[in-house]
Every structure is written in C-alpha cells, then in structure tokens.
C-alpha cells in the first residue's frame, strides 16, 4: 500500500487527476454564465469623448447631458414609466433590479442638467436620488469641496 501511495504522489501520475479536477471546476463555474445582457435588466451608457465636460464645482470630468435617477423601492413599474416619459429625456442606461436609470437630454449643458436634476427631485416624491454622473476621480486623496 505504501508503495502505491508513494507512486501516487509523483507529479506525473497526479497530473491526470489534477487536470480532471481543474476541468470539472471550470465547467461547473461556467455552466451558469451567460453573455445575454439584453434580458438581464442592466445596460449602462458610455458617452463619446465630446460628451464629457469638466464640472467647475467639483473639478471632475462629468457626462454633460446625462442624469442618473434612482427610484424608491416602493415605486411600481407603471409609475416609473410615467415619470420617465414625462421628463422628456431618453433612457440610455439602467439597472432595473435597483430601479436605477440614466436619462440623456441631448444638447443640454451641465447647468441645464443641474436645473433638471433639482426639478426632478422636487417634483417627484418617488425619486430618491437624481445626480450628475462624474466619470473621473480627483487626484488629491484629501480633496473636499
């Protein structure tokens, strides 16, 4: 028996067992994966280079004509659809599982977006958060404005 165990511990005889275990673990971990993101309820907007501007207040690069909106968890789908259609923007991104939407207002500048953001927050009690979308980080870790 000891001779068999010593023989089993050699790299050449252990290789088929290790390869089989690796193959099985990769197969099992990949079996639940899917590349189908259309039906997943998640899509995020990526702006073109000219769709970014420097926010003078924060110093961060920001999407110039996009607002992110998060609805309260109690808001039903019909109410969200009504609100989204009433604000006259284009839904360009979303994560429906957390009721998060990216709304684009083509041709708007950052000041117009800020005014729209405040108007949406004041007008719709179902909107918990409405914000501009920064796409860069400040280089100074002690930055606070």
The amount of beta strand, in percent, is 15-25%
DSSP strand tally: 6
Q: Which of globular, elongated, flat, extended, rod-shaped describes the shape?
A: globular
Low-confidence stretches: 17-23, 25-37
The description of the largest β-sheet is: 6 strands, antiparallel
- As an assembly, this protein is single chain
Pattern of helices and strands? HHEEEHEEHE
Rounded to the nearest angstrom, the radius of gyration is 25 Å
Mean pLDDT: 77
* Number of helices, where a helix is a run of at least 4 consecutive DSSP H or I residues: 4
The N- to C-terminal Cα distance equals 73 Å
Q: Helix share of residues?
A: 25-40%
Structural class designation: alpha+beta
Record keyword descriptors for this entry.
globular, alpha+beta
């Amino acid at each position: 028996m000891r001779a068999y165990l010593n023989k089993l511990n050699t790299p050449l005889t252990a290789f088929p067992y290790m390869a089989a275990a690796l193959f099985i673990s990769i197969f099992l971990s990949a079996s639940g994966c899917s590349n189908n993101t259309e039906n997943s309820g998640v899509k995020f907007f990526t702006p073109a280079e000219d769709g970014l501007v420097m926010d003078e207040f924060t110093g961060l690069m920001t999407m110039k004509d996009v607002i992110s909106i998060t609805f309260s968890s109690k808001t039903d789908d019909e109410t969200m659809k009504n609100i989204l259609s009433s604000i006259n923007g284009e839904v360009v991104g979303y994560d429906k599982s957390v009721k998060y939407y990216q709304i684009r207002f083509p041709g708007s500048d950052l000041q117009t977006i800020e005014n729209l953001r405040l108007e949406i927050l004041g007008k719709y009690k179902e909107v918990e958060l409405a914000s501009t979308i920064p796409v860069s980080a400040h280089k100074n870790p002690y930055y606070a404005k």
